Amino acid sequence: MGLVFVILATGLVFILSITEILFIAYGQYYMVGAYAVWYAIHILNLPYPLSLLIGVMTSAVLGLVSYVLIFSRLRNMDGRFLTNLTAALRLSMMHSQGGLLAFGTYPRSIPRVFMGGFTRLGMTFSNDKLALIAMGIAIALCMFWLYEKTKIGRAMRAVSEHPEIASLHGI
Question: How crowded is residue 84: how many other Cβ atoms within 10 Å of its Cβ?
């Protein structure tokens, strides 16, 4: 379970470093995506890869709509950090309560993707946990590479650190 937090933290740091928005509602977008995956698998009877794509797209569209409607309007305000933090906190509470009203308190789960496992030295390792570890490490390394070693990453850092100078260079 800890690697899920690594993946979430990687995204949170990425958002904070680029947009300078401490996006507290980030976990709620994960929740919305997870419920979309569950709904696609159990209600629509779609295969896992397609359901996962639906969950990612649902979270991405909701995030884009939130940014356009709320955070893009707050970018040039005085006291921007505190204002963004307050907006993110309110958004987090709205999504939490909306999820509670829409889905209730009954726990839901999706079927395991990677079946099986193995035992070594008295410890049992399941294949889905090993896949999660591999994905967590791969995502962290890819995000580091994208942000630090590519032209796009340099442009994102430039816009984040000095937006006026970056715009003079056509970024």
Answer: 21
Both tokens of 163, joined, read: 């937006």
Task: Enter the pTM of the model.
Answer: 0.73
Distinct helix (H) and strand (E) counts, the chain: 8, 2
| 3 state DSSP class of 126 | strand
Tokens (6 digits) for 35: 């419920």
User: pLDDT tens for residues 131-142?
Assistant: 888 888 888 888
Task: Tell me the Ramachandran region of residue 22: left when phi exceeds 0, alpha when psi lies from -120 to 50, beta otherwise.
Answer: beta
Q: What is the DSSP string of 76-125?
A: TSTTHHHHHHHHHHHHHHHHHHHHHHHH-S-------SS--EEEETTEEE
pLDDT attached to residue 143:
83
Q: Which residues contact 171 (CB under 8 A, 6 or more apart)?
A: 155, 158, 159
pLDDT single digits (tens) 126-169: 888 888 888 888 888 888 888 888 888 888 777 777 777 777 67
- Tell me, what DSSP letter sits at residue 2? H
